Amino acid sequence: MSGITVGIDGSDHSVYALDWAMREAATRHTSITVLAVDSVPASPWTGRPVGAEPGHLDEVRRVAEEMTAKATSQLGEAQPTSVSVRAITGFPARELIEASRDADLVVVGSRGAGGFARLMLGSVSSQVVHHAHGPVVVIPAS
Q1: DSSP label at 66?
Q2: Which of 9, 53, 61, 136 is deepest in the core (most CB within 10 A)?
Q3: What are the Cα distances from residue 2, in Å, to 43, 72, 76?
Q4: Superfamily (CATH) of domain 7-139
Q5: Helix, strand, coil % (nearest 5) of the chain?
Q6: d(Cα 81, Cα 93) in Å, to the nearest integer?
Q7: CA distance 116 to 137
Q8: Would you kindly state where each structural domain of the chain is located, as residue ranges?
Q9: pTM (2 d.p.)
Q10: Mean pLDDT, the chain cut into blocks of 10 residues (142 residues total)
Q11: Angle between helices 92-99 and 123-131 in degrees, nearest 10
Q12: For residues 58 and 8, is the Cβ–Cβ distance under 8 A?
């Protein structure tokens, strides 16, 4: 999976990141992968994801596809070479860091859907910046 990978979570910050990543992919004439991670808690025994609600991943995928379609429709003639949406269950930072292994660029919003509005950089974006295997762009709120 080369090209640009953008992480979204439905927050306003991820909308800005998605819009920026779409324009950048169009400018670079490359592909874009929109990655939506259904965040679940970790098992205290194994550290693996637990407690995924049945059908919730389908809802995450649907919302991600709607956000992507809206962002794509606003581009005009300049378009990425391809657009794909992946919805998975797991830990957002871990999944974005793993996706960075094959991406030319990872794009995230400066903050996500978490409740700490005073933070300048969210915990997921901070982890991705510090542990990604390639370049990361953090898009601030407009």
Answers
A1: H
A2: 9
A3: 32, 19, 23
A4: HUPs (3.40.50.620)
A5: 35, 25, 40
A6: 26
A7: 21
A8: 7-139
A9: 0.88
A10: 91 94 97 93 75 81 97 95 95 95 96 51 86 96 72
A11: 30
A12: no
